[in-house]
């Protein structure tokens, strides 16, 4: 998709009118294009950033120059037939108490009532951050702040980049430094391509070296979205690298490196007793799951995992839930995982359990195949393959027995 700007060239007097309203630092040129440079230390860039989006975010182009844009309040970028060149960073002011007040963020992500400080919406747009720009999350301040506090879903910690109700959008070569919480979320969107994404939640506080100070820093959560592509991602996090949540369909994932964290998660599905969660036609290839040195972070006990809530309602979302969809065999859920095909896997596991499935006896897991699956346990350990309530599994080098 390349927006066609030629058709929307504005006449010179329009540009002059824009200049009358421009905020300091924002330059508007003919042809509906805006250029914005950071105002500099101690200054607030939020007004001029939002002014550029409002003036050039439809049928236009916006260039954010290199450097740091000081963002002090929540933002929605509504982009339609627009191109954004983001050479610098949107630097979200690290005022934890301010952002935790939910009236200072958006609650557009329905699942777990998560909060967002930066929402991109619209259609036919491209945001290219040229591998020099993106979002500065100032996460270290957040991780320190929460080090001795309970961390709950929906507690107000903001998602760094939320793509919401977007159609035919491209996010390219985008850097997100130290996300406080989920790095990305795409919700209620379709036909979106992320090509080039770096998320880096790395603790540098020596007090917490060797522990996972960065829980909930998921690379992305996908929800209620169709035809999304995640290409060329590099994620360092302390939680799900990718979390494929309910009603994600036709998802393509290619060339993703997950450093630390919990690997790739499907779910958790079934948190809302009144909603069915469908995940269908997910294709992933060229994945690398890499443990970090334990001096940095101890996590990554799984490469890929599938999780669902139980069939019983225990508490309410965002923290509790379960029971979805209703069924007569509580506490076993009727959520079923099937059609799971693993091809060309190589590598080493830290323990002897290579594969473990514990499925709901109400429905079982079905049709699981392995092809060229060569993951080995530590030397002298016999590999163990566990299958509980699985109807069909083939291709492992030993029987998948129901033992723990
Ligand atoms: C960001 O803007 C706020 C409000 O004007 C100001 O207090 C703060 O110093 C600025 N931060 C930076 C890094 O410039
Ligand atoms: C943008 O372009 C579309 C398609 O030509 C047109 O209908 C719309 O009025 C334009 N909007 C603005 C704000 O220029
Ligand atoms: C949250 O912010 C709103 C709007 O500024 C304010 O009215 C409210 O008192 C704040 N709540 C808390 C708990 O600080
Ligand atoms: C949490 O840590 C902060 C900073 O280290 C400290 O000021 C605060 O008292 C601690 N809170 C609790 C509940 O331990
Ligand atoms: C999926 O999205 C891409 C990118 O917007 C688009 O080119 C493609 O046509 C879409 N596929 C379908 C089946 O809609
Ligand atoms: C991630 O962040 C850490 C800590 O700031 C830094 O040392 C490292 O170089 C970063 N990695 C990448 C790939 O940017
Ligand atoms: C895979 O993605 C990384 C960025 O995470 C990129 O540097 C590399 O060139 C990509 N590899 C291929 C084969 O495209
Ligand atoms: C499902 O339940 C949630 C509350 O848990 C509610 O917000 C939502 O509107 C309900 N959805 C439907 C379709 O009933
Ligand atoms: C998922 O899609 C199905 C079918 O359209 C719908 O019934 C269900 O409510 C959706 N679930 C969520 C979580 O949106
Ligand atoms: C797995 O371990 C073996 C033996 O220690 C080593 O040679 C190999 O490089 C490791 N493979 C990976 C993918 O780390
Ligand atoms: C199926 O699951 C039930 C409930 O968790 C368990 O009691 C049973 O042993 C499982 N069946 C097999 C063959 O593992
Ligand atoms: C589920 O799988 C188990 C084997 O683990 C089998 O004994 C049982 O009959 C299956 N149940 C259903 C409902 O297919």
From TrEMBL:
<protein>
    <recommendedName>
        <fullName>galacturonan 1,4-alpha-galacturonidase</fullName>
        <ecNumber>3.2.1.67</ecNumber>
    </recommendedName>
</protein>
<keyword id="KW-0732">Signal</keyword>
<keyword id="KW-0119">Carbohydrate metabolism</keyword>
<dbReference type="GO" id="GO:0005576">
    <property type="term" value="C:extracellular region"/>
</dbReference>
<keyword id="KW-0624">Polysaccharide degradation</keyword>
<dbReference type="GO" id="GO:0000272">
    <property type="term" value="P:polysaccharide catabolic process"/>
</dbReference>
<keyword id="KW-0378">Hydrolase</keyword>
<comment type="similarity">
    <text>Belongs to the glycosyl hydrolase 28 family.</text>
</comment>
<dbReference type="GO" id="GO:0047911">
    <property type="term" value="F:galacturan 1,4-alpha-galacturonidase activity"/>
</dbReference>
<dbReference type="InterPro" id="IPR000743">
    <property type="entry name" value="Glyco_hydro_28"/>
</dbReference>
<keyword id="KW-0456">Lyase</keyword>
<keyword id="KW-1015">Disulfide bond</keyword>
<dbReference type="InterPro" id="IPR011050">
    <property type="entry name" value="Pectin_lyase_fold/virulence"/>
</dbReference>
<keyword id="KW-0961">Cell wall biogenesis/degradation</keyword>
<dbReference type="GO" id="GO:0016829">
    <property type="term" value="F:lyase activity"/>
</dbReference>
<dbReference type="GO" id="GO:0071555">
    <property type="term" value="P:cell wall organization"/>
</dbReference>
<dbReference type="Pfam" id="PF00295">
    <property type="entry name" value="Glyco_hydro_28"/>
</dbReference>
<keyword id="KW-0325">Glycoprotein</keyword>
<keyword id="KW-0964">Secreted</keyword>
<feature type="signal peptide">
    <location>
        <begin position="1"/>
        <end position="25"/>
    </location>
</feature>
<dbReference type="InterPro" id="IPR012334">
    <property type="entry name" value="Pectin_lyas_fold"/>
</dbReference>
<dbReference type="GO" id="GO:0004650">
    <property type="term" value="F:polygalacturonase activity"/>
</dbReference>
<keyword id="KW-0326">Glycosidase</keyword>
<comment type="function">
    <text>Specific in hydrolyzing the terminal glycosidic bond of polygalacturonic acid and oligogalacturonates.</text>
</comment>
